[in-house]
Amino acid sequence: MKIRAVRLGFIVLAVAIASALFVSSGMGAAKAKPKGDPPELIAKGKALYAKAPCPSCHGPEGKGDGPAGKGFPADHKPANFTTGVFKFGGDDAKVRESISKGRPPYMPPNPNMKEDEVAALSAFVRSLGPKKP
User: Fold this and answer.
1) 54 and 28 within one domain
2) What is the CATH number of the domain that holds 58?
3) 3-class secondary structure per residue, 49-91
4) pLDDT at residue 33 tops 90
5) Which residues pair with 103 in a beta bridge?
6) Backbone dihedral region of 36: left (phi > 0), alpha (psi from -120 to 50 degrees) or beta?
7) 132 falls in which pLDDT band (50, 70, 90)?
8) Do 76 and 21 belong to one domain?
9) 100 shares a domain with 61
């Protein structure tokens, strides 16, 4: 009986070691998705941003320092995207909503913008903020 318990102990130990080696090798772990938006989407958004009226208020680098925004009241200044702080929420869904529906009375809606363009602009604008670890 004692020999059987020792054999069982060795088997359990061997399985535990094999499992640990399998997982630590990365073979048993799911591949982590890359963080952030694809670089191609951000590049498309950057090109759209430059051609759209966005820089007139938000500035060419998204710092909220565009010439049209200078006349806005203090509580309605254009967002400085480089801070990563958004008055109406900075996740993808909220930024897309701001782009497509606007934020009257200062930020106009963009009803004719295609969904893939809205997605690209959102990705670009969010990419200007601090990088997350």
Assistant:
1) no
2) 1.10.760.10
3) HHHCCHHHHHCCCCCCCCCHHHHCCHHHCCCCHHHCCCCCCCC
4) no
5) 107
6) left
7) confident
8) no
9) yes
Position 115 in a domain: yes
Mean pLDDT, rounded, of the chain: 82
Average pLDDT over residues 57-86: 93
Q: Which amino acid is at 37?
A: D
Instruction: Assess whether pLDDT exceeds 60 at residue 21.
Output: no
Q: Which of 69, 65, 62 is nearest to 123 (CA)?
A: 62
- Residue 45 and residue 109 share a domain: yes
The CA distance from 127 to 92, in Å, is 11
Round to whole Å and give the CA distance between 82 and 105. 23
Q: How far apart are CA 99 and CA 95, in angstroms?
A: 6
Same domain membership, residue 24 and residue 47: no
User: Residue 5 belongs to what domain range?
Assistant: 1-32
Q: Would residue 52 count as lying in a domain? A: yes
- Rounded to the nearest 10°, the torsion over CA 59, 83, 95, 31 is 130
